[in-house]
Design a protein that fits this description.
Elements (H helix, E strand, L loop, with lengths): L4 E3 H11 L5 H10 L10 E3 H15 L5 H16 L3 H20 L1 H5 L8 E5 L5 E6 L4 H14 L6 E7 L3 E7 L2
Antiparallel strand pairs: 1-2, 3-4, 4-6, 5-6
Amino acid sequence: MSEALVFGPTFEALARALGSRLTNETKDRFGALGVDFNHVLLPAYPFETWVKAMDLGSQLVMPNATERERHAAMGRRMVDSYGETLVGRALLTAMRVIGPRRTLERMARNLRTANNYTETKLSAGSDGAYQLWCSRVASTAFYCGMLQRGVEVAGGKGVLVEALGQDAAGATFSVRWG
């Protein structure tokens, strides 16, 4: 497989999620990671750069929270701020039209607007919950927040997302809504 890359619009969404927290000082901190918010963003960045940038962003947004709380909050924020990008606006519009179940069915395609590597598998449980496996998950908390907000945007109410397990290949999540 080729190098795992996260596309520029995802970093644009990160900058939007940070808002006024993206000061000259914090731009320097991102610059040290290889992300130059003072210039036009690159078309794509290595996966490892994304992981570090997302974590730094979460620290700026919620400095006194646990890593889990920060990452979950950043996952939720990223859905909303990604929706402000050209690519994200189209994606979130489609999600609203097709609803929560079909959004989960198309999750690999949805996440592939942000990166070149995500694979998913979805199964429906007898209890009404869906189990979604996603490849290459660095932070299950980030994915929990992102999936929760994504299903909410798609029309799900009372959305609950829980990480069920993680290994080197990916992670499995339980997703349910009322």
